[in-house]
Amino acid sequence: MNTKHRNKNLSRRNLLQLGTGLIGVGVAVGVGSNLVQPEVATPQNITEPDEALQALLDGNDRFASRKRRYGHQSYSRLQEVAKGQKPFASILGCADSRVPSEIVFDQGLGDLFVCRIAGNVATSEEIGSLEYGSLVLGVKVIMVLGHERCGAVSATLKGEEVPGQIGSLLQAIKPGLEKSKEQPGDKLENACKANILVQIEKLRSSPVLSELIKSNKLKIVGGYYDLDSGKVTLVS
Ligand SMILES: [Zn+2]
């Protein structure tokens, strides 16, 4: 209902114009001022989706191999990004306290545009946020990041009654369960991975995001975080 209303008032062309305009402003603010360059070589000039994905994977390698650089966490970086943001990647991750995006990808202030929600499900609000991240802020890769032993997916598998609004999350996770129920192996792991793919499909159904993908400005990928090793592997 909300989506319809928004679409009436703001056509895709208008949105794209808004995006271009705001990206322009962001770049001018970020690059044109006499700012102290951050001392750590976290990717600065990422222009391609593949470069953005590689930067995420490299950061996770550093994290998992205990070689973190803690880049972009200085006070000068704080001052730099106070003037504007140009994150290179978005993460649609689980709210699980053990999977904090900036830490597991070894990134800092202004690097990641993060949406976290139990079960990493793509609700319309999350999709709207990610559309903003890519269209307006210029994010080049969106990673849907699920993880090992996800409590939300596990609860959906068990099919128990849940209080409050928790049920709305489980409802959003069910399609992944359906897709994975015939697969051999660990049921919970299969369901977590299938859920990641289902949420990616939801994101791809966004006209705003699919337009960016078509013009090679954006990539959407799935990642699965191993709670024991800290390693993210791509899911496809
Ligand atoms: Zn989880």
Overview of the molecule:
With 236 residues, this protein is of the alpha/beta class. The chain has one domain (2-235): Carbonic anhydrase (Beta-carbonic Anhydrase, Chain A), CATH 3.40.1050. Helices cover 50% and strands 12% of the residues. It has helices at residues 2-9, 12-32, 49-64, 75-81, 101-104, 124-135, 151-158, 166-180, 187-204, 207-214; strands spanning 89-93, 112-116, 141-147, 219-225, 232-235. The chain has a 5-stranded mixed β-sheet with strand order 2-1-3-4-5, with helices on both faces. It is globular. 37% of the residues are buried. Mean pLDDT is 87; it is low at 1-10 and 19-42. Bound molecules: zinc ion (ZN). Zinc ion (ZN) binds at residues 94, 96, 119, 147, 150-152. Pfam families: Pro_CA. It comes from Nostoc azollae (strain 0708). It catalyses: hydrogencarbonate + H(+) = CO2 + H2O. InterPro entries: Carbonic_anhydrase, Carbonic_anhydrase_sf. Catalyzes the reversible hydration of carbon dioxide to form bicarbonate.
